Each structure stands twice: as C-alpha cells, then as structure tokens.
Amino acid sequence: MAKPPPRLFVESPLVTGETVALEKGQTHYLKNVLRLEVGATVALFNGRDGEWHGAFGISGNAGSVVAETLQRTQSEAAGPGLMFAPIKKGPMEIMVQKATELGVARLNPVITDFTDVVRFNRARLRATAVEAAEQCDRLSVPEIEDPLSLSERLENWPANTRLLLAAEAGTAMPIFEALAEIKAAGTGSDWVLAVGPVGGFSPAEHEMLRELPYAVPVGLGPRLLKAETAAIAALSCWQSILGDWDNRPIDRNAG
User: Fold this and answer.
1) What digits encode the pLDDT tens for the residues 68-117?
2) Nearest to 117, CA basis, from 98, 90, 97
3) What is the CATH number of the domain that holds 226?
4) Is the backbone of residue 232 left (phi > 0), alpha (psi -120 to 50) or beta?
5) pTM value?
6) What is the rounded CA–CA span in Å between residue 175 and residue 219?
7) Same-domain status, 51 and 92
C-alpha cells in the first residue's frame, strides 16, 4: 500500500495546470526532510478550491507543485467559533492545534479581567493551525482574529450568532442537554463556544455574559478545567452532537 502524499496549505489558486510556488520552508520540508524526488505527488489545499494532487518540481532552491487532479471538492461544513482568553504559549498552541483538529471555524481571542497573558503571537498560532490542518485532512484553516477586549468583542457581535458559554459558576444546563435542544430546534444560527481565562471570568463578566439574549450557559461537569481543557472538551461535545462525527476519514491510499 502506497504511503499517502504529504499535504501542504498554500494561498495560491488551485486549477488544472497551475504552477504553485512553494515557500522556502515547504521546499526544505519536501526536499530535505521527506527527500521527495522530482515528480513525486504532493497534495495541496487552500481553503477555497478543494484538495489537489500535483507533481513536485525544483529549480535550484525554489520548489513548486503543478496542480494536476482535483481529489476533493470544497464541501467541508463550517464548525463553531471559539472565544478564549490568551494563556501561556505552550497550552495556547495545544488549544489552537486541537481546536483545528476538532473543526473550529474561527478563533476569537478576548482580553478579560483575569487575563494575565497579553502577548499574542498571531503569526505563530496561524502556523500551528496550518500544520494541524495539513495533518488532520481538513480542507480549511480556521481564521484567527486579533485580540479584543471582551466588551469590544460583544459590541461587535455578528448578527444571527449565538454564544455557548462554558460557565464555571452559577446555574447552567449540562452541555449535552443544551446541544440536544439546539439540534432539536434547528435554528440555523451560527455558534461561538466561550471559555474563560485562567481563574475564569470575573463575577462582573459572568453577570454580563449571562444577561446576553443570545447566550446559553452550559456546564462541563463537576471539575474545574484548565482553559485549554475546557475548550477541547466543549468542542468535542459539540462535534459529537452537532458536528460531523458521523462521517469517516477519507481513504488517502485510494486512487
């Protein structure tokens, strides 16, 4: 059985015969790490045009792939957004990686009263999301927005979008019950999952969030979870009820 070809995310349009210039790091990865030969098959996706197979080429130190055949059309269903407060670099990269694997559509960082990590390296997190998308067979990379204060984020809240609030205090419906009700209602709204920072949302923030007409407070069980754990748990619950877990991974060895 042949090994599946490596997958790369590119910004270029993908159409038959298009020569896609690779970034320096991508060329190094294919040429020196994987030791691909000229003509070897590489899979490309850009979040718009599906997944394509093409032939690897190199001229000097410049690598390229000529798109040849469309393997998958761009039919990936959109997942929920994730609103979170920046945390330390290692846990935040894990959160972004796993959220990407779990189908999150957007990452919306917010600065809250208890946020103690203000530095936010968007480019690094984007690279983490790209790598995760390449490895998990996604056809898209989640959008990562710049941080806003919680109040700014809520002031600019998009229409027809509801908030599933992971509430560590106060009354809240168990998340599986809430998701089952959402599925039964079939409202068609977009959703954002919200998890608090280390130490949680402040009492004032909790009150403000709970009073939002589009917010649904939910519980994630009896234990206090770290921010990254809460995000992964909430997204997993979402996928199990409202997501695409009924589907199976594609067979990349076929064809």
Assistant:
1) 999 999 976 678 999 999 999 999 999 999 999 999 999 999 999 999 88
2) 90
3) 3.40.1280.10
4) alpha
5) 0.91
6) 6
7) no
